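User: Reviewer 2 asked us to show a designed sequence for the structure in our supplementary figure. I'm pasting the structure tokens here. Could you produce the per-position amino acids so we can include them in the response letter?
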């Protein structure tokens, strides 16, 4: 659910119209991937897209599949075959090559980015940061990218998101102002945390009279994340 991201979306769209190389970065849960998917779903640009881009070989596989090649036809491809296939695909002309959830870039991965930049094929990267510890050797070419930071939502936009979630989840909240204040307090405006807490608010075990124990909800959220249990 995208709420309060109009400015960020508009900034990214303008950069894409200029065919800039872009790094979108920010903490986990700020909604970076959702912003990109929203832009791509409403636009007309031709693109190749990798939803997970930490491993070079898997990234090439993702890009090739997004270009229309059936997954079963890629099973026996080694790295060399994947590279030949992607270079052939790139000849078709794409407005953007998009790498979501990018991690550390090694030498071979960097060479691929350098090829794209040399050929003036616009690149859009989504990562948790734009420093060496986040993007590895790609950091050496960071000056060639426009940077867009996605921060947590401020209080006003967080409240707007919470109000949307109350309606969307049909939550019965008696003291809505207190609920919004507590959700913002424990989430820090992080959209992913806000959504998770509002999902937990549907459970009766957190209710005491007309109030919800948001402290306990947040504690359970942290436990689920730490143990890898996706209860929601």
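Assistant: Here is a per-position design you can include in the supplement:
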């Amino acid at each position: 659910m995208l709420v309060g991201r109009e400015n960020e979306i508009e900034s990214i769209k303008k950069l894409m119209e200029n065919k800039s190389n872009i790094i979108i970065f920010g903490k986990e849960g700020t909604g970076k991937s959702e912003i990109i998917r929203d832009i791509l779903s409403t636009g007309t640009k031709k693109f190749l897209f990798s939803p997970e881009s930490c491993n070079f070989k898997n990234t090439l596989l993702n890009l090739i599949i997004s270009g229309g090649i059936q997954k079963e036809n890629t099973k026996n491809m080694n790295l060399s075959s994947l590279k030949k296939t992607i270079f052939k695909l790139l000849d078709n002309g794409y407005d953007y090559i998009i790498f979501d959830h990018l991690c550390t870039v090694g030498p071979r991965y960097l060479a691929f980015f350098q090829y794209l930049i040399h050929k003036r094929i616009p690149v859009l990267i989504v990562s948790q940061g734009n420093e060496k510890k986040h993007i590895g050797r790609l950091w050496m070419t960071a000056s060639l990218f426009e940077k867009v930071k996605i921060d947590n939502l401020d209080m006003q936009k967080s409240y707007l998101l919470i109000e949307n979630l109350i309606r969307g989840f049909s939550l019965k909240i008696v003291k809505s102002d207190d609920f919004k204040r507590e959700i913002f307090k424990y989430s820090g405006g992080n959209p992913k945390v806000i959504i998770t807490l509002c999902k937990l608010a549907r459970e009766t075990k957190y209710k005491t009279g007309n109030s919800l124990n948001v402290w306990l909800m947040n504690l359970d959220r942290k436990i689920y994340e730490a143990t890898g249990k996706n209860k929601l």
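For the response letter, you might also mention the following. Residues 6-149 form a domain with the Rossmann fold fold (CATH 3.40.50.300). The chain is about 50% helix and 10% strand.
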